[in-house]
Amino acid sequence: MSGSIPFYQKHHRHYDRDYRSRETKSAISQYQQSSSSRYSAQSSSTSKGIRAATFTSLDEVGLSPLTKRAKPTYLAMDKENQIIGYVVPIFRGSQEFASGLSDTEEARAKENAAYLARRDLFTSGVEMERMEHKSRRTIMRESAERISLNKRIHDNEEYHKRLNEDSLMHPPEFVIKPRSHTVWEKQCVRLHCTITGWPEPRVVWYKNNVSLDPMAHPGKYKIESSYNVHSLEINRCDFDDTAQYRVSAMNSKGELSAFASVVVKRFKGEVDESLPAPRPHPCLEYGVTFETHIVEKFGVSFGREGETLSLGCSVIIYPSLQRFQPEIEWYRDDKLLVPSKWVQKHWSGDRATLTLTHLNKEDEGLYTLRVITKSGYETHSAYVFVRDADAEVAGAPGAPLDVCCQDANKDYVIVTWKQPAVDGGNSILGYFVDRCEVGTTHWIQCNDTPVKFARFPVTGLIEGRSYIFRVRAVNKSGMSHPSRVSEPAVAMDPADRARKGASAPWTGQIIVTEEEPVEGVVPGKPCDLLVTEATKNYVVLSWKPPGEKGHEGVMYYVEKCVSGTDSWQRVNTDIPVKSPRFALFDLAEGKSYSFRVRCCNSAGVGEPSAPTEATVVGDKLDIPSAPGRVVPTRNTDTSVVVSWEASREAKELVGYYIETSVVGKNVWEPCNNKPVKATRFICHGLTTGEKYVFRVRAVNAAGISEFSQESEAIEVKAAIASPAPPYGITVLECVRDSMVLSWRQPTFIGGADIIGYFVDYREVIGGVPGKWHEANIKAISERAYRVSELKENMFYQFQVRAANMAGVGIPSLPSETFKCEEWTIAVPGPPHDLQVLEVRKDSLVLNWKPPVYQGRDKVNGYYVDIKEAEADFETWRGVNEKATSKKYMKITDLKEGVTYVFRVRAQNKAGVGKASEPTEPVLAETKPGTMELAVEVDDEGVISLNFESKDLTADSKFIWSKNYEEFTDSTRLTVETKGNKSKATFNAPSEDDLGVYSCVVTHTDGASASYTLTEEGLKELLQLSHDRKFPIIPLKSELAVELLEKGRVRFWLQAEKMTPNGKVDYVFNDNMIHQGEKYKMNFDKNTGIIEMFMESLGKEDEGTYTFQLQDGKATNQSSLVLIGDVFKQLQKESEFQRKEWHRKQGPHFVEYLSYEVTPECIVRLKCKVGNIKKDTVALWYKDGREIKANEKLDFSEGMLTLEIAQISKKDAGVYEVIVKDDRGKDKSTLNLTDQGFKDLMNQVFSVIANSSTQLKIQSTEQGIRLYTFVNYYNDELHVTWHHKDAAITFTDRITSGVVGEQLWLQISEPTEKDKGKYAIEFFDGKGGLRRTVELSGQAYDDAYAEFQRLKAAAIAERNRARVAGGLPDVVTIQEGKSLNLTCNIWGDPVPEVTWLKNERELVSDDHYILKFESGKFASFTITTVNTSDSGRYSILVKNKYGTESGDFTVSVFIPDEEPGKKK
Predict the structure, then answer these.
(1) What average pLDDT does the chain have?
(2) What's the average model confidence in pLDDT over 821-843?
(3) CA distance 975 to 952
(4) Which residues contact 527 (CB under 8 A, 6 or more apart)?
(5) SS3 for 676?
(6) Strand order in 973-978's β-sheet?
(7) I need a labelling partner for 252 at 20 to 30 A (CA). Which of 221, 397, 791, 1204 fits?
(8) How far is 1400 from 699, CA to CA, in rounded Å?
């Protein structure tokens, strides 16, 4: 890098000096060393630079050629030699010292050093002048001396490492760690560090824990290592280079890492103020008024922590202009919500949705949707409640909430939170605060012991880094879930934060700077020292920095003094704090302390500030007092409004928690999980009709108050209010001085029954209405009323008011203007009071009241009309073609989901009159939970109609009617209502009770149902009633018989259900039988099983058996007939079972004698014996003769076996086993003769066949052999050989046989005709088994070729020359004797004979006589043996088929010598 300062650093006071050139730094370092040196004065400054660069190596090995000196320290000391801080050394490069400097570099170094020395370090002009006039020769000599010195140091280090390597081994250590940097985009940055360690550490650089490979990013990264100095250079930084970098050093002794952050910032240019501001688009909808309607609104919602919740509304805006969309805003507790990872907003054009992705208690509150148009805005609000998630440990408290960071400074922040409403049943012991650095996932607990105060100062933060926090509550049962994390907080000076604005990207880290080195100035006194917070756990101090603090940053020491003494004690003795805030822990509760602060920097420690006033350690903030009187009031069917008096003593109040409990249960549940500051709250989610009590407690940072007194009990039901006004006023009849009016019931009745109506009227003259007059003073209960004393031919308007127990409601709107004149029309007037009941998805019931005005004749029928609610008037159509005389009708064939309206017309003889007013729109649907009216017949035969409703309110009533007319005659029907069920019981059902029975539940959403009792249905009910009155005991099974052990006979049946009072009579042939010796009876009333036992059956027991049951008034019976063959078969079976039982009292056969054939073709006879003991013996017999089987009984299994190996015909016979002891004996026989023996042998043959191997081909000298192996061969085995699926006829050329376990087929001198498929078939009396092989193609060719080879080899072997015998191995002979040896020779043709001595051929002469006679006899004669004839002799015979030799040794001895001594 060049020596000039980049442009972006020239005016930036927070730049890193490491951007300066290495040459400049090297020259500066030379002037920062001591002036003493063993070098000459002329080279003193340069020598100092050498010492600075080589200090680390010299100090480590202890071989410095320089004078012994102390290690430099990096600790800053004050005047009293107390540590006040840590000084970070500036990195100095050393590459040039190792490689030498060029002339240009030396000149530039000289100029830079001289300039910097004059500006910063030296005041002596003489020394600067001397540096400027250094000769070129002197600089070169110094450079050479420096190189030589480095070489000597390196050699000495290597020498001593080799001498004693183990003593020098140590793990890596960072002498200088890499520093964090903040740079501008497209600039370069260099991270460097100095690392020691032996063996030399391996250094790796990481980016966000991913190792960096310069080869993978050519030109981007440059990694260098030289003389324990390691560097990473990042070229042309961009935003992606913002990360945490780690350098890791590792050797055999250990591993060590250091971290540094790089933040890349982008320059944002200023806005040119000369440019005009953007103008909004013209409002093209000028003059248009938008109407906004919010429909399908979200209601009060409940969620649980961790769940996802969505709120939504449909928005209708008229007129709809696609280009102009409304502005959608969401609020929580009147605070505008912005999209985040917790909140997502969506607008589809007609629906606004808010999604809470991960519910926490912070999300609880009143949510408001605001839809804004140019014409105004519309809003809708509803409350969202968030319950605690299930605790990981039972009884653990809920999670804290609203974790916030306050008063953040360089190394300090205050974390606050709110206490949870749920403590898990045990008081909360305190809270733990955790922190996590942004960009990591590692959480660190900040406090060792739980703190009860909901505020905690966190210290020890690293300046420039961002942190998030969370809080956990703990009680004696366990730990809560962590709270939602706080917003990130940056550890930095608030003034710097305000000046620098937003944090850096990714980590939020701020520039780490180093001030320019200037002459140190001891800072002044801090000012405005205050105790901002005091609890029994800690005390927080704050102050302002001093006015005189020099040009470098200051740090602080805090001192404390117990009141009444003058002994000041420094609190932070190790490391001074950077922030003007400090939290003191471990103070004695109840004691009084004073505090003061000192400033310090590298120049020393300043004077202390003025001490604070005496502060007593303890909670200054008290827990609030309990709230006052709690008053609940009704609100809706599921909510109650709770009001209370505020706490009288409540400083820094956070809010209130409300709890509720069902009366009598004493189980308290929170109504809110987020504190509310108001003294009024609506508690939702309550059960209608239940009674609740409430209590409240207050919350501040010090804790939660005691509970208020419990409120009075209140039943959850809608609050009573005066009803809404009636509507739909019509005239039913008019005469000269009176008019009959009708109207519809108010849509809202105020939560109580309407007790009556009041009618007012007024005259209308010339279109001008007059004053209102009361038509009735006393309330009327019907919705029809005759207004009298009117004037004929006058015009009138009417209004109606409804009244309930809360009062009289507001009047309805004035009706139309009606003329009072007598009706003279012939047809009837309109029916009125139409009601829709029993609404289902495809049907409903409509009933009405007859018209008041009958016309000239009485009404004789009605017509019902129907149309869809949105359809035109012309679409009215009739439901019934024929008039109905009833005043109700069930309308069917409706379409589910369609809304309908209905009207009714009355007719008389004159015709059809005016239609009634249409009903309100009715949606054809079956509402969830709809119940139908049920008919039941109880055990006493009583017939009743039953109806149940789950939507009852306290004022609901069941109204029963017959044919939709309420009945009061209790002689036919008795009505009884309990809870949410009502029952109408028929007193004496008969045909007079036929009709439609219906039940309507008032104060519900139309709960109603009906049942039509027809003549046929009545008959079925009466029959069922008779069966219930005179019941029959149902039977699960009829009377049956079965045999038990020992031949006992069991008669049994099972009834469905019998009470403990049930009884049974046992009858045989119409005679009662009773418990005794012959009959044993049993009746299990729990299971309904009835039994009778008999030990045996005799002839006298043939007949009919009957069980007669009675249980109260219920009876039944079942019979079983045992006569003829059925009885005889049962008697025979019983006798057999009894004999079997006696047999089994001693040793007996559980499994009788049988056989099996093992894979080894061993026949095993086996049987299983039961009930044996040690004295039990087993005897085997064959054909009446005992077999000594040497069988020992296995008492655990009781198995007896007899094995027959290599079975043959002689083993055929009758086998018998007898087991006996003193208790008795038993016998088992197995016939293995004739067919039995054949079956056994067939099974043996089957085992043999299955054990056979596949047919294989083998060549021999005679021909080709096919063969297979079996595990065992039996002489009785029948096999057949096949060639081309035809049985083979054996000849001299084709033969078969058996050798051991091998079955073979020999084909001598094979020809082409012998090719084909061969098979061997084993006969086992069933299907048999066949093994095949294909002798053709390559298989035949290979086999035939091998046959020819073997044949030739056999011929050669038979005819080759060979020595047949006659020669000894050793011949010992006395000297002078004659030796004659003769041997037999074989070979065709006659072989050639050669005699050898010591492998040399002998020639026949007078001494050695060699003869070969008749082509068979070869003789060898030595006429006179001497010692020279000793040796090894051989005879060699040879013909065209081969050669063979015979060897013998001749040993000649002299008689006078020791015999056997070789000559």
Answers:
(1) 82
(2) 92
(3) 18
(4) 543, 544, 546, 547, 609
(5) strand
(6) 934-937, 943-948, 981-986, 973-978
(7) 221
(8) 128
How many percent of the chain have pLDDT more than 70? 85
Locate tokens 């003007």: which residue?
580
Cα distance between residue 1257 and residue 1091, in whole Å: 75
Q: What pLDDT digit, counting tens, does each position of 298-344 carry?
A: 999 999 999 999 999 999 888 887 777 889 999 999 899 999 888 99
Helix pair 125-132, 103-116: axis angle to 10 deg: 170
CA distance 1370 to 772: 167
Q: Is 99 helix (H, G, I), strand (E, B) or coil?
A: helix
Residue 704 CB contacts under 8 Å (≥ 6 apart), including other chains: 419, 623, 657, 697, 698
How far, in Å, CA of 509 to CA of 1252, rounded? Answer: 85
pLDDT confidence of residue 152: 83
Main-chain dihedrals φ then ψ at residue 74, nearest 5 degrees: -110, 15
**How far is 408 from 462, CA to CA, in rounded Å?**
12
- pLDDT exceeds 50 at position 1381: yes
The CA distance from 1243 to 1240, in Å, is 5
> What are the C-alpha distances in Å from 1364 to residues 596, 1399, 1416, 1450?
129, 21, 9, 20
Q: What is the DSSP string of 1126-1189?
A: HHHHHHHHHHHHHHHHHHTTSSEEEEEEEEEE-TT--EEEEEEEES--TT-EEEEEETTEEE--
- Please tell me the distance from the alpha carbon of residue 1012 to that of residue 1005, in angstroms, as a whole number: 23
C-alpha 804 chain-centroid distance: 57
Radius of gyration of the chain (CA): 60
Other C-beta atoms within 10 Å of 400: how many? 26
In contact, 496 and 580? CB cutoff 8 Å: no
Strands 703-704 and 691-700: antiparallel
pLDDT mean over 389-408: 90
Scan for tokens 């299971």, then name that residue.
Answer: 1087
* Total H helices, total E strands in the chain: 13, 101
CB-based contact 351:473 (threshold 8 Å): no
Structure tokens at 742: 């009708």
Q: How far is CA 1176 from CA 1145, 1152, 1169, 1170, 1225, in A?
A: 13, 17, 10, 11, 9
pLDDT tens digit sequence for 254-310 = 889 999 999 888 764 433 333 333 334 334 444 578 888 898 899 999 999 999 999
Is the CA virtual torsion 172, 176, 180, 183 positive or negative?
negative
CA separation for the pair 1463, 1454 (Å, rounded): 8
pLDDT surpassing 90 at residue 802: yes
Report which secondary-structure segment, H or E, holds 447. none
Q: What is the 3-state secondary structure (H, E, C) of 914-949?
A: CCCCCCCCEECCCCCCCCCCEEEECCCCCEEEEEEC
Instruction: Supply the pLDDT for residue 1241.
Output: 87
Per-position b or e across 1108-1119, b if 16+ CB within 10 A of its CB: ebbbeebebbbe
Query: Using CA atoms, how far apart are residues 1036 and 1055, in angstroms rounded to an integer?
Result: 5
- Rounded CA gap, 489 and 409, in Å? 9
Give the global pTM: 0.44
Rounded Cα–Cα distance for residues 570 and 581 (Å): 15
Rounded Cα gap, residues 128 and 114, in angstroms: 6
Q: How far apart are CA 955 and CA 720, in angstroms?
A: 11
Q: Spell out the residues 6+ positions from residue 571 whose beta carbon is closer than 8 angstroms to its own.
A: 557, 558, 559, 560, 582, 584
693 or 464, greater pLDDT: 693
Tokens standing for residue 817 = 């203007």
Element (H, E) at 1382: strand 1379-1386
Instruction: Taking residues 1146-1160, report their average pLDDT.
Output: 87
